[in-house]
Design brief:
Blueprint: E1 8-13, E2 17-26, E3 31-40, E4 48-52, H1 59-70, E5 74-79, H2 90-104, E6 111-112, E7 116-117, H3 122-126, E8 129-133, E9 156-160, H4 168-177, E10 180-184, H5 193-208
Parallel strand pairs: 4-5, 4-9, 5-6, 5-7, 8-9, 8-10
Antiparallel strand pairs: 1-2, 2-3
Helix pairs in contact: 1-2, 1-5
Length: 209
């Protein structure tokens, strides 16, 4: 789509909603637009975030796009012992997220944190209600987990490990350092990491939003 002076565009943010605007000036690095009218109010979104291990090729892109569409608030790319990917391009992750938000009509964009090792997430875990979806198949179904208070604005963190699975010491680190901890099953099948992310988020949003 070509943008020119006088073109109509939609502007949105996570606190004042979506607005129709008209471009009044364009240069190489930015543009100026004049707001004309409000399209819709901002909708309060669930306080649900994702902590996951980046995976190869287009699979991480799919995770970013689909988790954005589902409504995650924050995304925490995290390095586990069995994570294969050593570096990520956060700018690319952000561009995937922006595109997904535009496509699905969402009026906010998830915050994408820096790539960190799991033991650097201890402070985050200590303030969060953690749902760990573990491939060890010993978790409870989400219908049977102990309920936690969803009215205190505590962030719910959905954790999906790397393609090779969690190390036992990682399980213990997450369990011991979480504000509240639930190990949740996704059923009898062992799912690919990217499939597990979408399945886990879908369940979480269904039960906690």
């Amino acid at each position: 789509m070509r943008l020119d002076i006088g073109s109509e565009i939609a502007l949105f943010n996570s606190y004042s909603g979506e607005w129709k605007a008209i471009i009044t000036r364009i240069n190489k690095k930015n543009l100026t637009a004049e707001v004309v009218s409000k399209i819709s109010d901002y909708v309060i979104e669930p306080n649900i975030s994702l902590l996951f291990s980046p995976i190869k090729n287009l699979n991480s892109e799919a995770i970013i796009r689909q988790s954005t569409e589902l409504g995650v608030k924050n995304i925490f790319p995290t390095f586990f012992q069995r994570t294969v990917i050593k570096k990520i391009n956060t700018d690319k992750f952000l561009s995937y997220s922006i595109g997904a938000a535009q496509q699905c009509g969402r009026m906010s964009i998830p915050s994408i944190d820096n790539y960190q090792k799991l033991d650097q997430r201890i402070n985050l875990l200590s303030k969060s209600n953690v749902l760990m979806f573990d491939e060890n198949l010993k978790g409870k179904s989400i219908q049977k987990i102990d309920q936690f208070n969803t009215d205190d604005k505590t962030e719910i963190i959905v954790i999906i490990g790397p393609e090779g699975g969690f190390e036992e010491k990682e399980r213990q680190l997450i369990f011991k350092n979480s504000k509240t901890f639930q190990n949740v099953s996704l059923g009898p099948q062992i799912l690919k990491a990217d499939t597990a992310v979408i399945a886990a988020l879908s369940l979480t949003f269904h039960y906690f939003s």
